[in-house]
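ugh finaly. both done.
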Amino acid sequence: MTRAGLIERLADRQPGRRGFGGTADPLEAAAFRLVLRGDHDLNPGMTPPSTALRPAAVLVPLIDRPGGMTVLLTQRTAHLSAHAGQISCPGGRIEEDDPDAIAAALRETEEEIGLPRERVSIVGRLDNYVTGTGFEITPIVGIVEPGFELVIDPFEVAEAFEVPLAFVLERRNHQRIERESAGRARSFFVLPFEDRNIWGATAGILVNLAEVLAD
């Protein structure tokens, strides 16, 4: 996947609307369900959260390496109260003073790993992802030129690492597994990379990226 090809695929994207759960119109709510991605994609009996969702935004940073693009991911520290130790895209909640999801994703990325926002060229966004914990995540895709130096916040991030984009695009790496949670079986994607397992919302977002770039 070349830089030009990636930008072309994302340029005309019309991702899902943000805000499922905030409407009293059943037809509109049903439409939101269809266009929003989430944990319920692989679990037909699972209903997306019906309460007001908490907005969040993440950056999907694509590093334009000479040998091929990579995706920059983080591993959260083990002591955090939410999603401890999980592999994530840098990002977090959209705060009231954030102008939009892009600003929130860039701010959170700079706070977590020290990647300056001026190093990121925003090229598009993916489908919103609704989690079972009540977050609606807006994934923002940006291309980053090599030559940056990360400054990791040790409270939130244990480490940052890169995964080849070619690995993410390979459908054979999108493993679907089942696990029991809260007394019922749940299915979700896992992308096993080296000694790590990328799963949950991050895996769902990366699978969506692969779908978009494969169209």
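ok and the 2nd:
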Amino acid sequence: MKKQTPVLAMVTLACLGATAGLMEAQASNDAAGQLVPIPIQLPKPMFEGTPQNLAVPNLEKPLGRPRDPFLAPAGVTNVAKGKKVVSSDMEPVIGELVQVTDGDKKGAEGSFVELGPGVQHVTIDLGAPQEIFAILFWHFHKTPRVYLDVVVQVADDGDFKKNVRTLFNNDHDATSKLGAGTDMNYVETAEGKLVDAKGSKGRFVRLYSRGNNANELNHYVEVEVYGRPAK
């Protein structure tokens, strides 16, 4: 076998280096993961159109079309499915807390939990720290309603004292004593409310509300948390 000349050896090493660099960059891109639509399965709508005359301040306008797909890294799933739920009201007026994560999003009678009046919350234990990209929830979609003082938080502990982060807050006057928020009120529909969690890491997810424009009670049809195990 012929020995390579110094020049040829240098060229060979340069090519190998370039190939290694390309492979390293490709591996980095693969590690980052391509963004794909999260696998949301929406329930059947229970009413047509969105009413325009709801007397609720700071109400966002209907989009008028289906929501755009929400993109996240491949492999992200609903890590809340079947997970334990506790609440500020452990004895719901209607339903059981397990229904919050049971996968039933229909919203018909028997498909939702009704909590007492005033400020109430549900807390989901994801079982282990997760990297969370989206939180999707339905309070009620049998008829159009606006739920008040909706606040969504994640934390490292079930008491919400460690590394608490607020991802959504439309309580503009801090009535619920969780701080004043800047997000808008919205009408409940079969699409649910999707909150961008931006890859927040945490084990516990908590959702607050303070009644709705129809009555003082609080409801949950389903909560989904799209994420993957935190590294």
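summary for the 2nd one i guess: The chain has one helix and eleven strands.
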